[in-house]
Amino acid sequence: MDSRADAILPETMLPPAGIRLVADTALDRRDNGRLLVGGAPLRIIRLSDTGARVVGSWLDGEPLADADQARRLARRLLDAGVVHPVVAPVADHDLTDLTVVIPAYNDADGLARCLGSLGDLPVIVVDDASQNSAEIAALCERHGAQLIRHHANQGPAVARNTGLVPVATSLVAFVDTDVELWPGWLNHLVGHFEDRRVVAVAPRIRSRPGDSLLESYEQHHSPLDLGDRRALVAPNNPVSYVPAAVLVARVDAISEIGGFDAEMRTGEDVDLVWRLVANGGLVRYDPTVDVEHRPRDSWMALLDQRRSYGSSAADLGTRHGSRVAPARCSRWSAAAWAAAAAGHPIVGLGAAVGSAAALKRKLDPLPDSLAMTIRIAGTGHLHAGHGIARAVARVWWPLAVLIALIRPRARPLIVAAMLGPSLLDWVRGARPAGLMSSLALRLADDFAYGAGVWQGVLRTSDPTSLIPDFPGGSTQTVETQTDQG
Length: 485
What we know:
Layout: H1 3-7, E1 20-23, E2 28-30, E3 35-38, E4 42-47, H2 49-59, H3 68-80, E5 83-86, E6 98-104, H4 108-116, E7 123-128, H5 133-143, E8 146-150, H6 156-164, E9 171-175, E10 179-180, H7 185-190, E11 198-207, H8 213-221, E12 231-233, E13 246-250, H9 251-256, H10 268-278, E14 282-293, H11 299-320, H12 331-341, H13 345-363, H14 369-394, H15 397-406, H16 411-427, H17 435-460, E15 478-483
Parallel strand pairs: 4-15, 6-7, 6-9, 7-8, 11-14
Antiparallel strand pairs: 1-5, 2-3, 3-4, 9-13, 10-14, 11-13, 12-14
Helix pairs in contact: 4-5, 10-11, 11-17, 12-13, 12-14, 13-14, 14-16, 16-17
């Protein structure tokens, strides 16, 4: 590892002793634990025999000892995303340094349920010019919540910023009115802040179950549900953002970056998370804690929501550049798949083999380099193909449809790209309905999102959100580090 980075890391930034660590689901341990392959970007971390034994003991359940060298090693592994913390829930009496901020707009029923689930926590409700403001005010009075009212609707970003101003605690929990909370949800999330580098943490947000087709679809394909894998959140990571529908954060960290972007009505939570990360903070996703989100009331509302989400991509592109690219893979992978799509699979295979050869030379000093090369290169090309196919269906579909009309020979490949990832999801168990209905619904979902992306591009005259990102290097970006811990 880079000992210089560890040397300047202050004691307060090391992870707290006593936490337990679990391996990321994609972590590959080789050479009797002396090689760790995982993280994003992909890292190969080489450990000494002592370091391998220490990490092995952590993954077997031993808590992190109060020893400087062990905590520095844990810090590096946590920051790389190859391990994740398992924190103990804090007691109710330790939640006094937290305020809940709720942006509300017309949803009195949801606000009533939300306030009823928060107990004695201090709550600030920001009424963003609701049409039923008297009902909102009565609910706040009944539950002892502080009420701030906007005289004109300004969107959730401004409402959250308004609610943040009077917060006197060190932590804030942003909660939307259409979320249902369960006892203990906050106790588990607050435990993450014992690590001073953590600036925000979010739970898994599941869609509320129900019997209708729409409710079943949302259960399987809600954009708020980021899955069951613990994650370090950052652009281009497997979990690249977390929604602000439920988000717990340090007040000083959010204030330092200026809060939510007041000009964004959608995508403001993605923007906030990326700016927190760019400012040096860690954002964690903890799916061991879950809450429920109310699904849309109709299919038209669902599709309009997806279009709205897509329209925010242009604003994110203006602010964050290639981080919002619809597809991201190495140039080797892009060349391999482009050749295959053009009807030259042998050329594509040659590009894939060439990338593997380049990667093999980089990994030659490590034991078991051939097996690692095959695994990393193969996985990288498959993930790249999946990502490109998803971009075709979600973002580039207007161009794909045009190509299909003028080049009949391209139609099978375009259809495969549009339906392949959704078919794979269905095979893996995401089955809101029968096969054909599930594919049709997912296609409509993707088309609505893509329409929003193009709408945003036309509005901003910024095409960044349409442009793929093809960084140089081998199949994946691979960093090799050595630690003597």
